[in-house]
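Methods — Computational structure assignment.
A single polypeptide chain was analysed. Its primary sequence is given first, followed by the predicted tertiary structure written as structure tokens.
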Amino acid sequence: MFSQVSIGLTCLLPLCAVALPTDQRPLILNGPKNVQAVRTKLKHAEIIPTVIDDFLPSLTVSVLWSDAKAKLGNTIEPDHLGEQPTIVLHDDTSPDGMHSTSDMSYVVTLTDPDAPSRDNPAWSEMCHWIASNVTTAPNTFSILPLPEFGLTEETESTDGGPEDVMEYKPPGPPPKTGKHRYVFLVFAPKNGTTEPLHVSKPEDRQHWGTGKEGGGVREWAEHNGLVPVAANFIYSQNDKQ
């Protein structure tokens, strides 16, 4: 059930009025420290460019389970990942400290590019979760700073909008396949629409339904007119190695 998802969100810019970029280009220049750190971590883990094209996040995303949270590349045992996590979006990029709520809907995804293993990604990518129409509740904010990109304030979404397009499948790396990267990506509509999103459900989790080896969230997002705005990730591996 999506009742576990809570959203605390303010905009980088008034996204309800400013269209997003029309393609995925690296937005380097003078990004805030937190989002620059996210981009650096994604590149170091080779998530950029293996999973997604280079981009500078405009939001940060906290991912929390009962006994664990994602910290941009920490390792979590599979036993702690069984429940659907809580997702909280943060904006710490407003240069003048001014924040405004956005009516834009977002899409949260979880993908495994290392299936069945990083050395043999023949099943890659594996779709583990798609949640669409994720929005902020009216007049709610998540205030920074974000220590270790963790949760500072938690608020409930009450609009009834979010829905699972692909139900959460807990990470379950097979034995003797080493560490898997499990990548959370948050997308926004490329055209900046505030209308409800109707994204496609992959026909299969394997290869995100593309039918080709290496097919994944990047192709699915492009097909649905989405661009990345936030990311987080963890490592997880089976006890038997």
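Note: The chain has three helices and eight strands.
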